[in-house]
Amino acid sequence: DKEVRAIFLRLFAQLFQGYRSCLQLIRIHAEPVIHFHKAAFLGQRGLIENDFLTKVLNGMAFAGFVSERGPPFRTCDLFDELVAFEVERIKAEEGNPPKMIKHVRELAEQLFKNENPNPHIAFQKVPRPTEGSHLRVHILPFPRINEGRVQELLQEGLARSQGAPPATRGDKKCVVPAGPPVGKFICS
User: Fold this and answer.
1) d(CA 170, CA 150)
2) Where is the UDENN domain (predicted)?
3) Rounded to two decimals, what is the model's pTM?
4) Does some domain include residue 57?
5) Beta 33-36 vs 173-175: how paired, if at all?
6) Is 3 a member of any domain?
C-alpha cells in the first residue's frame, strides 16, 4: 500500500515540478487569493498541447491542491521536499530501475513513519467470533458496571491530565521551499 502511494507521490512530484513558480498571490481581497498561472506553467514546460496535463490543471482536485498548498508559509511535508529537492534525483533514476525501486521503498518507509509515529504502540485486532458462537449457552452475561469505581477512575484521569502539559502535534509552519523554476525542466 505504501509503495503504491510512494509511486504516485513521485509521479505527482514530476508532474507538478516547479508549480510554485507559477503561483500568484492576489491581495486585493480581504483574504489573499492564490492563483495558478496555467498558461505559464504549460508554456515553460513546452506542454501547451498536452491534453492530459491541461485537464488535470483544469480539474477541481488541482484547484483544491493550489488552495491547500499555495500559501508560502505553512507546514511542509514529504511532497514539498520531493518537489523542491528531489526532482533531479527522480530524473536521474528514470533509466535505472533498481535505484528507482530503492527510492520508492525509502518514500514508502517515510510515509509509514509519518502515519505511525509511535511504532511501539501496537493495536491488537479483536478476532471474529467463531461460526455458531452465538448459539452457545455457556456464555456468561456481561457483568454490571460498578458506578463508584467508574467515578474513581474518571477522577484519577482528570487529576493526571490537569498536571500534564497539553498534547499537541509539533507542526511547525515554515517557508515552503520553491524548488527549481519551471523553465529548468523540459518534458517529453
Assistant:
1) 33
2) 1-76
3) 0.59
4) yes
5) unpaired
6) yes
